[in-house]
Amino acid sequence: MSDGISDDVEDVVGVLTERIEARFDMGMDQLKAAVGAAPTANPDATDVVKWHGLLVQAQSVLDSAEDDLLAALETQPSEVDDPTMGLADRVNAAVTVRDGRAMVVRWLLDPDAPGKQGLAAERLARLRPRTGPAVQTSAPQRPPGTPASASAWRAARPVR
């Protein structure tokens, strides 16, 4: 990997946490508190905190899966049984999830990442959550003397 995280690094979460803290010039606890207090103030910080939480969660699942696999392997004779192979598959899946979330965090931290400039960045900005209603929430005003539509009249009729 060209961004300084090698495949041998065991503490992916720690490395990315340090990068987040350096980028926002505050500790993770402070950043989480700031995002919690004003989630729309800095959308980049909000996204990073969200994905960092997902990364921490994925790492926890991976640690648990690895512990379960190691415990099963300690009781195995020379051949590995199907339940133990299932645990190995669980570890592989957990690694994939953790690595995918780590990639998202790295992408969020890189201002020059593909898709963050030009047309792709404009499209991405449109996907951000809206702060107000997306559609009109009140009935439009009718000019005086304009009759209500037939469907509105039927909806207002008493049911027999």
Features:
160 residues; mainly alpha; 6 helices
Describe the protein's architecture and organization:
This protein is mostly helical and 160 residues long. It has helices at 12-24, 28-37, 43-74, 82-109, 119-127, 150-156. The model is unreliable at 4-9 (pLDDT under 50).
Write the layout of secondary structure elements.
Layout: H1 12-24, H2 28-37, H3 43-74, H4 82-109, H5 119-127, H6 150-156
Helix pairs in contact: 1-3, 1-4, 3-4
H-E order: HHHHHH
- Measure the end-to-end span: 72 Å
Classify the beta-strand content into a percent band. Answer: under 5%
What is the 3D shape? Answer: elongated
Number of strands: 0
Q: Helical residue percent?
A: 55-70%
Q: Main beta sheet, described?
A: none
Residue runs with pLDDT of under 50 for 5 or more positions? 4-9
Characterize this entry briefly.
Helix content is 62%, strand content 0%.
